[in-house]
Design goal:
Pfam families: tRNA-synt_2 (PF00152), tRNA_anti-codon (PF01336). The protein has about 425 residues and is an alpha+beta fold. The protein has 13 helices and 16 strands. 4-amino-1,4-dioxobutan-2-aminium adenosine-5'-monophosphate binds next to strand 11, strand 15, strand 16 and helix 13.
């Protein structure tokens, strides 16, 4: 019977066949231990010389990444965290691999990135993609179970919700177009048609940042809710993030173990999350020794990390100054220098994972803000019209998938959280 490695627990004591690759092997003159992988998991195969000498010679000659059908009996194995291994009885080689470039020795990051198409096969990268996949699944589950509809915004756009400096320009026949920076403006239109919606798709930022948190192409989840005040949106955010963390802890145990992720830090992630105003955060930073920071400055990674370290859960920094945030954010009635917005900062130095706000719903105010921001009114006419026909208070947010994967997996750089990351100076493979 043909099975996959993840089905092995159901076949203890049975003779089965698995299509797989050789990850690594070790052994002596008497026994070979084959590390097998098939995409669903990793398992050890054992070949004993005494039992079958020609099979033993085949096993000894296997190269890294050779593909094969391997047949044998599944046995319990309490030394491995998977819990099962195979006593191999037959090996049918499908394709012999020679000179696989990624060997068990240490390679530099650039070399691994050049070989990303192969690096994806390694144990750690496999675990990170499993966690990414779980977050994707749990995102759909969360929003569908809570009455949201998925509405897909366009990728080719004429607008720039997050400022004009980071746009990817392209020609759209005779017109100018940009790759979407965010689906938000379209999600707002959809919320006026469907109430609670979310988008989940690729977004693009031509940012000249070369940090461990920035990608040029990243995936964003953007919920938008009609009749939700900013406070209501914060509650959605903390419940959604708590859900993602609990689902990853429950379904990705082996992956987290393979990544040596300290899960106690994740087990603490329960709503509600603490909140600190931007203004208080400035004071806190001054006390912590950032003497040069002034009210009105934006936060960089060291500032965010310092603020996050002050709490043991993700923290919302609320009410940033209007000048450093996007044009569409509603003014804070209690302090008109600031807006009704929040950035959610993850613990352990992973930085901002969510940006969100209440949106301006008054026509004249929004028009004025678009003009003040130097944007071309023509491109936003449709967006303004949402404030002309039954405008309502509404709020939404955007969660960055790759930063969230990095945080939950415990990997230091977002380049390992996208299957084929687009980075400054990297379009290959
Ligand atoms: O804070 P941002 O720019 O917010 C928006 O785009 C809003 N329109 C969202 C909304 O309200 N619907 O981006 C949101 C999140 C960030 O918190 C971060 O997690 C991620 O997107 N992000 C990036 N991730 C990787 N690389 C980049 N260059 C990123 N820029 C933003
Ligand atoms: Mg932001």
């Amino acid at each position: 019977m043909k099975i996959s490695i993840n089905q092995a627990p159901k076949h203890e004591g049975q003779k089965v066949t698995i299509g797989c690759w050789l990850l690594q092997k070790r052994g002596s003159g008497k026994i070979q231990f084959l590390q097998l992988r098939d995409g669903t998991g990793f398992m050890q195969g054992i070949v004993v010389k005494e039992n079958d000498e020609s099979l033993f010679e085949t096993a000894k000659g296997l190269n890294q990444e050779t593909s094969m059908y391997i047949t044998g009996t599944i046995k319990a194995d309490d030394r491995s965290s998977f819990g099962y291994e195979m006593e191999v009885e037959d090996i049918e080689i499908i394709h012999e691999s020679h000179g696989y470039p990624i060997t068990p020795k240490n390679h530099g990051a650039e070399f691994l990135m050049d070989n990303r198409h192969l690096w994806l096969r390694s144990k750690k990268q496999h675990a990170v993609m499993n966690i990414r996949n779980q977050i994707i699944k749990s995102t759909y589950d969360y929003f569908f179970d809570n009455g949201y509809k998925k509405i897909d915004p366009p990728i080719l756009t004429s607008s720039s919700p997050e400022g004009t400096t980071e746009l990817f320009h392209t020609k759209y026949f005779d017109e100018d177009a940009y790759l979407s920076q965010s689906g938000q403006l379209y999600a707002e239109a959809a919320a006026m048609a469907h109430g609670k919606v979310f988008s989940f798709g690729p977004t693009f930022r031509a940012e000249k940042s070369k940090t461990r948190r920035h990608l040029i192409e990243f995936w964003m989840i953007e919920p938008e809710m009609a009749f939700y005040k900013h406070e209501d949106s914060l509650e959605v955010q903390e419940q959604y993030v708590e859900y993602l963390v609990t689902q990853v802890l429950e379904h990705c145990k082996l992956d987290l173990e393979r990544l040596d992720r300290d899960t106690t830090a994740l087990e603490r992630i329960k709503a509600p999350f603490p909140r600190i105003t931007y203004t208080d955060a400035i004071e806190l930073l001054k006390e912590k020794g950032f003497e040069d920071i002034e009210w009105g400055d934006d936060f960089g990674a060291p500032h965010e990390t310092e603020i996050a370290n002050h709490f043991d859960k993700p923290v919302f920094i609320i009410n940033y100054p209007k000048e450093i945030k996007s044009f569409y954010m509603e003014e804070n009635p209690e302090d008109p220098r600031t807006v009704l917005c929040a950035d959610l900062i993850a613990p352990e130095g992973y930085g901002e994972v969510i940006g969100g706000s209440e949106r301006i719903h008054d026509y004249d105010t929004l028009k004025q803000r678009i003009e003040e921001s130097g944007l071309n009114l023509d491109a936003y006419e449709w967006y303004l019209e949402l404030r002309k026909y039954g405008s309502v208070p509404h709020s939404g947010f955007g969660l960055g998938l790759e930063r969230t994967v990095a945080w939950l997996s415990g990997v230091q750089h977002v380049r390992e959280t996208a299957p084929f990351p687009r980075l400054l100076n990297r379009l290959y493979p």
